[in-house]
Amino acid sequence: MKRLLALFDKPARTAIGLMSGTSVDGVSVVLACLTGSGIGTSIQQLAFATYPFTDDVRRLILENSAPGQGTVDQICRLNFLLGDLYVDAIEALLKEAGMAARDIDFVGSHGQTLHHLPSPYAVAGKSVRSTLQIGEPSVIANRLGILTVGDFRVADVAVGGEGAPLVPYFDFIILRSEKVSRGLLNLGGIGNITVLPKGCRQDQVFAFDTGPANMVIDQLMQRSYQRKFDEGGEVAGRGNVRPEILERLVQHPYLHRRPPKSTGREMFGAAFVDELIGLAGTMSLTPEDLLATVTEFSAYCIGESYRRFIESETALDELLVSGGGVKNRTLMTAIQRQLPNITVQPCSHAGIDPHAKEALCFAVLANEMLAGHAANLPRVTGARRPVLLGKICLPPNDL
User: Fold this and answer.
1) Average pLDDT over residues 234-239
2) What is the mean pLDDT of residues 35-58?
3) Which of 191, 337, 222 is nearest to 291 (CA)?
4) What is the pLDDT of residues 203-217, one digit of tens each?
5) What spatial distance separates the first Cα and last Cα of the chain, rounded to whole Å?
6) Average pLDDT estimate for 186-207
7) What's the DSSP call for residue 269?
8) Alpha carbons 88 and 388: distance in angstroms, whole number
9) Helices 215-225 and 270-282, interaxial angle, to 10°?
10) Domains 2-163+356-398 and 175-350 are alike in CATH topology
């Protein structure tokens, strides 16, 4: 416990943040210096890299994420495999940065979401909410000798919350403004937006998942072109948006659900894409037209989320965007078209690397756990009360 206690006395802490998301493309690792905690937190990013998953690892994650396909033995092994891969990624970044594990005060690891079922479900006479992130944090702590905080979603779900999104707390303490009302949009597999009214208090922060961002686009690219994503939105840019498909997509019930809400591969995964491809086949759509249409749908989800659930309460001045979708020019252009009165730009304009933001978030959430600060936002997740997020795994030399 000596190292844990010593962390409270350090004015600045060197941390690693890890993120692997619903796009299942790899693990993002950030090295940062964190000063303070809560609204007094400041961040200096020192290094960042994304290490792609191999095709075999990606296949295993997707297979075991699909309802009815995962087996307990595969999931058990995959939990530890991902822990090993996270260790490899940390070691690779430290080598690039010229640092060693002994230089790091702690790791914050989101893990890989395998299944997310936050809606109540009757099981053996109980109403159960659940979520499962794998990538065993004890592997990181014991192999590298670094205190590790992981499994951030479960405490919020335990008190009736959605367990997502978690980034809004980071947005509040790092990116709120006294001058403008900001939206913070992350374009990962799923899109999520945080609303920060000008000069807002913590209880005024509003956030939710908007729906698919890159998830459906990526799956169509893999099936039609054997490519992991639509680089720069080039394929979608060649196609034409087909209104007859788009009109069906925009009727999806998720768009009409009021926040708090979150979603993932369970709703917009393989089964959704299978149905979409079948529908496109009956209408003789080209792959380019289908890509153009689902890219427009992702942008529509964001625009409609703003019109339905945000605009009447907070008119945004700017929308700062992060995540892999920032590189998709066709998607970014479509979002700006959906929101003509709002400045849409990468969050680098506010001093945060748009590709490192989510990994930075989990370094910050680990810092908040170690400082003893509740970091869920009940208005965002629907939780009954604020709770500490994450589980602390101590390295052997702290026992």
Assistant:
1) 97
2) 96
3) 222
4) 999 999 999 999 999
5) 6
6) 95
7) S
8) 28
9) 60
10) yes
User: Number of C-alpha atoms within 13 angstroms, CB side, residue 8?
Assistant: 9
H or E element at residue 152: none
- For the domain with range 2-163+356-398, which CATH number is right: 3.30.70.270, 3.30.420.40, 3.20.20.70, 3.40.50.2300? 3.30.420.40
What's at 190, amino acid-wise?
A: I
| DSSP conformation letters of 31-51 | EEEEES-GGG-EEEEEEEEEE
Instruction: Tell me the whole-structure pTM to 2 decimals.
Output: 0.91
What span, in angstroms and rounded, lies between the C-alpha atoms of 397 and 323? 36
Rounded Cα distance between 332 and 327, Å, is 8
Longest distance between any two alpha carbons in the chain, whole Å: 66
The structure tokens 């892999």 sit at 324
Query: Are the C-beta atoms of residues 272 and 29 closer than 8 Å to each other?
Result: no
How do the domains of the chain map onto residue ranges?
2-163+356-398, 175-350
Angstrom distance (rounded) from CA 206 to CA 281: 39
Residue 23 has what pLDDT?
Answer: 82
Q: Residue 14's beta-bridge partner residues?
A: 33
pLDDT at 2: 67
Q: Strand, helix or coil at 186?
A: strand
Average pLDDT over residues 60-70: 88
pLDDT at 69: 84
Q: Evaluate if residue 4 carries a pLDDT over 90.
A: no
Is the distance from CB of 389 to CB of 365 less than 8 angstroms?
yes
Block residue for tokens 């945004």: 316
Q: Is the pLDDT of residue 201 over 90?
A: yes
* Measured distance CA(266)–CA(393) in Å, rounded: 29
The residue with tokens 């416990």 is 1
Q: Please return the burial class of 135, using the count of CB atoms within 10 Å of its CB with bins 0-12, 13-18 and 19+.
A: buried
**CATH number, domain 175-350:** 3.30.420.40
Q: Percent of the chain having pLDDT more than 70?
A: 98
